């Protein structure tokens, strides 16, 4: 785990467990990507809200 591992498998390998763990890890990656995308949108909206024009002050 010190080298970056987040999971491990024991032998003999159980195919159902491998599938479940891979599915969970892929889901975590997708969630991380979604969070990053939404954070970028919020940051862009925040920057856009800082702009002012002569009519709105």
From TrEMBL:
* Superkingdom assignment: Bacteria
Q: Which residues form the Response regulatory domain?
A: 1-26
Q: Which GO terms describe its biological process?
A: phosphorelay signal transduction system
Classification via SUPFAM superfamilies: CheY-like
What name does this protein carry? Answer: Two-component system response regulator
């Amino acid at each position: 785990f010190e080298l970056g591992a987040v999971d491990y498998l024991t032998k003999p390998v159980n195919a159902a467990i491998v599938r479940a763990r891979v599915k969970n890890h892929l889901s975590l990656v997708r969630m991380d990507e979604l969070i990053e995308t939404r954070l970028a949108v919020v940051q862009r909206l925040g920057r856009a809200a800082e702009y002012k024009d002569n009519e709105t002050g």
